[in-house]
Amino acid sequence: MALITTTEPTFKADVELGSARGRIWRSLRHNPLGLAGGVLLAIVVLVAILAPLIAPHGPTEVNFAAPFQSPGTVGYILGTDDLGRDIFSRLIFGVQVSLQVGLLSVALAVIVGTPLGLIAGYWRWLDGIISRLTDVTLAFPFIIIAVGLAAINGPSLGNAALALGIAQVPTMIRVVRGETLRLRETDFVLAAKAMDASGLSIIFTHILPNAGSAIIVQATVIMPVAVIGEALLSFLGLGIQPPTASLGIMLSDAQQYISRSPTAAIFPGIMIAAICLGFNLFGDALRDALDPTNTRRK
Amino acid sequence: MPRYLLTRLWQSAITLILASIVVFVGVRQLPGDAALAMAGEEASPERLAEIRMQLGLDQPLVGQYATFVGNMLRGDFGASTRTGTPVTELVAATLPVTLWLAAYALIVAIFVGVMLGVLAERFRGRWPEWIANGLALIGLSVPNFWLGILAILYLAVTLRLFPASGYTPMGQDPLGSIRSLTLPAIILGTSLAAVIMRQTRASMIETMKTDYVRTARAKGLGSGRVLFRYGLRNSLIVVVTIVGLQLGGLISGAVVTERIFALPGFGKLTLDAVFTRDYPVIQAVVLIITVGYILINLAVDVLYSVINPRIRVGGGS
């Protein structure tokens, strides 16, 4: 009797997911940069979660007796700002805010973008409508969305996340749509169709689970963009409002007295860069690991 | 080929109409009654009604939209509620600064990005590639407004290589103008350069593996000519694509860059308008940037179809 050989991605979604997880791990082990990114991210997330425990001072705790302390001062490892607030504590809470805004906008992009992408890719007659919607959203640069929202609702954390999320929805739609277009021509979807499965059940059992890795990779692409975007909006006054500790606000404050205390401007930037570097490195490694055409690292 | 362009034109037209509706509706969402703002809190209902009629606010929405589009097409954006200056004048004074800055940044980004990308490909696995890759990673991860602040601190204030802020108009002193925009343009171009570098490198690696490059080499063509004739020509397509995709980022970046370097550009006009709730200016700025963005994207696509024959033949989107 001849051996029956099956091709790799076949019938069950969790089989694919399991193998993907294995592939990520195997690939990461041979990718020191990606691993470093992962470790960096883990530290950043831990710091954000444990912020109230780690920070020696409150993020908005003012000490008029000790403004412009240089780094290394007792009680203030990284020094203080113009109001005598502890820069180290503000940094830690700033990271928390950055990740909050990042997660919110990623969630928005995923929740809105995924279904629209699936619909546009699966039901081709709806593609035209959704593509026009995508085009309209893309017609507004993200800063203009933020400007508009700030004009309507006033600047806030929610507004920043909303603006960043809306701006990322079109790319998410395109990624998911592309994956759907590819997957709907695969043998297992064609087989399901032949067995008279409904469109919805095909989407949920076959397409969505297989498009998962592309969605995750795209999310790691969005995160650093959103983190920088939050800092940028807050820096401009369109996002989070003082006195809340946000990395962008810290930078804009620090710019006011930069010649007096340059270090106050340096730390928030390093923090933003570290978060983004973590996501970029880890995201790249994830993409390499999940990309089936990349056989070099398997 | 005209078929693709026609589809693209038609799509752009629809996008323009939809975008104008979004702006129209958005402006009506702004807090505050326009008539009340003009007449003052103590105005009589008759006076308010009169102003509403003048502004066309008593018309049905469709009629208001038609007036709105008509005014925009005639370039009539009203006057700033803060200073009373016609919005067109404000735009004419600030837009050139931003366009000049963006063009300069684009040139810097393309030059640096392509150069590093080519270097990285030529020296694969050796230190020039690592340096180029590292620079790209930093360019992508480091927020450019932070770089801008540091650049002002170290390059402008400490080393006095560049003016720290301010703008010299092109007509007044061309050299001084270039000098005043050099640092902002470099800062604005950083992340774009990083993206261009990565894509150029990837595209060069692909191209150098193709059969026609191997054939060209086998014919005895020098490596420099292979690089320019095949490698760079293909990465031109990549660069045009990237520029099209990153245009929104360039606009957002310009707003921040102007803020950091205190340049009197379009971004400053935008931010000032938001903070003072100067609605006619906000409306004009949003509309101009959006329309400009759609048109430039269209131009990029047309350019793309000219330099990349594969798109023309395929047709459709």
How would you describe this protein?
The complex is a heterodimer of chains A (298) and B (317). Chain A has 298 residues and is mainly alpha-helical. Chain A has one domain (48-64, 73-290): MetI-like fold (Orthogonal Bundle). Chain A is built from eleven helices and no strands. Chain B is mostly helical and 317 residues long. Chain B has a domain at 96-275: Orthogonal Bundle (MetI-like fold), CATH 1.10.3720. The chains are: A mainly alpha (298), B mainly alpha (317). The A-B interface holds A 131-132, 135-136, 138-144, 147-148, 150-152, 167, 224, 228, 231-232, 235-238, 251, 254-255, 258-259, 262, 265-266, 268-269, 272-273, 276-277, 280-281 and B 11, 14-16, 18-19, 22, 26, 29-31, 137-138, 140-143, 145-147, 149-150, 152-153, 157, 247-249, 251-252, 255-256, 259-260, 270-271, 274-275, 277, 279, 282, 285-286, 289-290, 293-294, 317.
* Rounded radius of gyration of chain B (Å): 24 Å
Helix- and strand-based class of chain B? mainly alpha
Kindly estimate the percentage of residues of chain A that lie in beta strands according to DSSP: under 5%
Oligomer: heterodimer
The CATH homologous superfamily name of chain A equals MetI-like
Q: Please provide the ordered H/E string of secondary-structure elements of chain B.
A: HHHHHHHHHHHHH
What is the CATH superfamily classification of the domain at 96-275 in chain B?
MetI-like
What is the string of helix and strand elements of chain A? HHHHHHHHHHH
What is the total tally of β strands of chain B?
Answer: 0
Number of helices of chain B: 13
Mean pLDDT reading of chain B: 80
Question: What characteristics describe this protein?
Answer:
heterodimer, A: 298 residues, mainly alpha, MetI-like fold, 11 helices, 71% helix, 0% strand, elongated, disordered N terminus, B: 317 residues, 13 helices, 79% helix, disordered C terminus
